[in-house]
Structures are given as structure tokens and as C-alpha cells.
Amino acid sequence: MTGERTVRDRADVLNGLSRELKLLSRHQVLPHSLATPLALERSAFLLLSRLEADQPMSLRELAEAFGLDVSTVNRQVAALLRQGLAERIPDPGGGLARKLRATAEGKRKLRQDQAQHRAGLDMIMTHWSAADRHTFFELLRRFNEDIEALEGTTPWPRDEES
Question: DSSP string covering 44-105, please?
Fold first, then answer.
């Protein structure tokens, strides 16, 4: 009976995790409830975040980082370029492909939205203990790293001090 219960418990946990991850994906950590609206659309926020962590990057490098087709990333990058949030530059390594980097305006808007996301998280977790916040961070980081390993993708650059 213990083996059957373990399988059932595991299924219950996996069902619960699946539901909670779906719910999490629909939230933007409440930045909309803060006084200032977000400056960036979600795709711009994600692309600029990656460029901030690992710039400059080519379209192909960005596509690989996100697991998307180059054409999809090209459309998203075109929007960044039109808005003056990113710019094309020659490859600093001497390669033929041009690279992308965030402009000063792109970095400014990214920092603004990152601050709002942190404020939203702080608002949600205001009653959590420091230990609970740290445990949640460690488990979520491990979860994301395991996904990257399973997918065989290049790990997202992480600040080792966070």
C-alpha cells in the first residue's frame, strides 16, 4: 500500500505543481498594481534582460537563448530597433554577423521595469520570513537550472552573488 500511496502522492504533487505554474505564468508579479505603468512589453523586457546579461548578441544567439526561431526573434528585435531600445553594432570579435545591444534608453526602461518587478515581489512576499524568501529563491533557481539542463540549452547568465 505504501508504494501505491507514494505514486498517488507524487501524482497529486505533480498535478498541483502543474496548476500552480500555469497560474504563475499569468501573473506579472503585480507591477500593474503599482503607481507607474511598465515601460516595456513582455518580449522587450525579456530580450533586453538577456542583452543586459550577455551583450552584445546576434539574432541567432538570441534565438538559441530563448529556444525560438530566428524569424520570431527578428520581429521582436525589429520592434526594439524601431523604438530605439536596441541598436545593431559590428561584432566586437570581428565576425561577419552584426550584434545587438541595448541602447541607453533601453537600459533605462529595463532598470525602471526591473525595479517595479522587485517592488511587486516585495509586496507579495512582505510577510514572508527571510529564510522562506531564500528557500523559494534557491528552489526556483534549481528548478530553472534543471529545465535548462534537460533542454540542453545554454544556461541563462546569472549573477553569482544573488
Answer: HHHHHHHHHHH-SB-HHHHHHHHT--HHHHHHHHHHHHHTTSEEEE--TT--SS-EEEE-HH
Specify whether the CB–CB gap between 94 and 100 falls below 8 A: no
* Residue with cell string 546569472: 158
Q: How many residues does the chain have?
A: 162
Instruction: Indicate the DSSP class of residue 152.
Output: T
Q: Is residue 66 within 8 Å of 34, Cβ to Cβ?
A: no
Other CB atoms within a 10 A radius of the CB of residue 93 amount to: 8
Taking the CA of residue 52 as centre, how many other CA atoms within 13 Å lie in the half-sphere pointing to its CB? 18
In angstroms, the CA 154 to CA 54 distance is 12
% the chain with pLDDT above 90: 48
d(CA 46, CA 67): 13
Task: Encode pLDDT of 26-68 as tens digits.
Answer: 766 555 555 677 889 989 999 999 999 887 999 999 998 888 8
The answer, yes or no, to whether residue 134 has pLDDT greater than 60, is: yes
Which has more confidence, 5 or 38?
38
